Amino acid sequence: MVCRHCVEALKRTLLDQGLHPLSVELGVAEIEEENLGEALLRCLDNALDAQGFSRIKSHDEEIAEKTKHVILDHLRRESCPLNLSACLEEHLQLDYPTISRAFQATEGRTIAKYYLYQRIEFVKELLQYGEKTLAEIADLTGFSSAAHLSRQFKAVTGLTTSQYIALRPSRKPLSNV
User: Fold this and answer.
1) Are residues 99 and 129 in the same domain?
2) I want to staple 146 with a disulfide (CB 3.0 to 4.6 A). Which of 31, 79, 133, 134 is the partner?
3) Same domain, 66 and 45
4) Average pLDDT for the chain
5) Same domain flag for 121 and 169
6) Residues of 40-61 as b/e, b for ≥16 C-beta within 10 angstroms?
7) Mean pLDDT, residues 147-155 taken together
8) Which phi and psi (to 5°) does residue 21 adopt?
9) Quick one: pLDDT band at residue 37, thresholds 50, 70, 90?
10) Helix, strand, or coil here: 111?
11) 129 lies in the same domain as 104
């Protein structure tokens, strides 16, 4: 879950299934009921799936979900003194090989690939605002140069940054809101 709308949607889904949520936060929902039968769990899984959510069923899935949250936070933080692996170890209190193994087993891709795709999504967002140069965006998103960013962007999206800007409608900058 990434926003308050997701939290509200999950609360509604739980209530619709006859459950009593005690708390719903980013990535975690606690319900009053303790032992749910297999039939109710299947119904809950179907209802969650219809909303684009899924229940975490294993320790590896829990690690992968927490890893995603740390990656997004690390990416959006202006100045994290740690590299990504150290940041993950600090926040998850696990060694990086354990985190990496659980993530790849659950997600079917490496942490590095997921991180690259999230960086490219952030680049797309920044390009649409049109407030920063490519060099500034490269610096903000952790690429070594504008040229490196451009190569990675093309490899992931199939478009140059200029093509992407031309194809995408512009976003209204937050500074103008």
Assistant:
1) no
2) 134
3) no
4) 88
5) yes
6) eeeebeebbeeeebeeeeeebb
7) 97
8) -70, 130
9) confident
10) helix
11) no
The parent domain of residue 94 ranges over 59-108
The one-letter amino acid at 95: D
Q: Which helix (H) or strand (E) holds 145?
A: none
Q: Based on the number of CB atoms within 10 Å of its own CB, is 69 exposed (0-12), middle (13-18) or buried (19 or more)?
A: middle
Higher pLDDT, 98 or 49: 98
CATH code of 128's domain: 1.10.10.60
Residues 46 and 65 in one domain: no
CA distances from 107 to 63, 68, 98, 168 (A): 11, 10, 14, 29
Question: Do 38 and 81 belong together in one domain?
Answer: no
State in Å, rounded, how far the first CA of the chain is from the last one.
25
- Asked if pLDDT for residue 81 goes beyond 70, the answer is yes
Tokens encoding 128: 């649409």
Tell me what pLDDT residue 177 has: 44
Q: What sections of 53-141 are H helices per DSSP?
A: 59-76, 84-92, 96-107, 111-129, 134-140
Number of domains in the chain: 3
The residues, ordered by sequence, that sit 6+ positions from 4 with a Cβ below 8 Å of its Cβ are none
